[in-house]
Amino acid sequence: MHRFELPKHLRKTSFTVMNSDAAGVPRERTRASDLIYVSRGIRVPTDAELKGSAALAAYTEVNPRSVLSHLSAAHLWGIPLPWGREEDWRIHLANPAAQRAPRRANVVGHRLNLLSGEIWLFNGVRLTSCARTWLDLAPSLSLNDLIAAGDFLVCSHGPEFPAPRTAKCTIEDLAQVIAHHPGVRGIRKARAALELIRVGSDSPPETFMRLALVEAGLPEPELNVVVRNEYGVAVLWPDGAYPEYKLSLQYDGIHHNDSRQYEHDIERLETTKRLGWVEIRISRNDLRGDHPAVVQKIAAALRAKNWRPNSPHRGDM
Question: Has this prediction a pTM greater than 0.70?
Fold first, then answer.
């Protein structure tokens, strides 16, 4: 006897038994061995390697008022998270504040007061907006990790950059969501983070580099700086820069070990020197510890350009 074939739209996603009922799938078919029972009323095909929204779709279909939130929404938005949080794949699901929090296997339930514009549709899945997701992360992230998450959301690069980038939201969006929820947990940390979020930081290490320099009382490097050659053509896009001193900051991530990237780095260094700039390369090791080496490295380069310290330190948060 042939097994009832699932409709195409149910084969590559998590689905609810209600949806399979609506598609004419017999109930006994939903108990077959090729379907995984992941939670009450939710099934996943065993041969479907589900990721992202496809894996989570059924969780917002079970209750039409439920939305993915917190870490689950952060994963879908691509928000960078610290190790430990990044590996936490429990499903965060929120109901309106007037309802009980969701209670399911492998689900962290929340009750949220979500205002107009704070619920978005992402590949058919309801989730909190990126700005609201950022605010909801505030209680569980350190100040610097929350700043890095905000930097990621507001990052944009113009058409002159090799990889133009559009922001997922604006700093004003983050400020607005803070203003609308003055009593939520983590609000003081979110306000402190907002003051230090900048447009143009491509990765958490670049954010941490900037914060370490500011914390040490060094000038804050500029982001989204474009360096042009003698013909006015954009040729350099440093991760951070001090244009007044012609200092270019470049963070070398793991991808810089690639042979092609290595050749590109050499060409970039030669161009930097030819234009009268100095390139300072920063590694992951330079960012480690309570007194990261990046501070001494940048301070020495600034002093060589006749900079003298006169900036106050950022207070501890």
Answer: yes
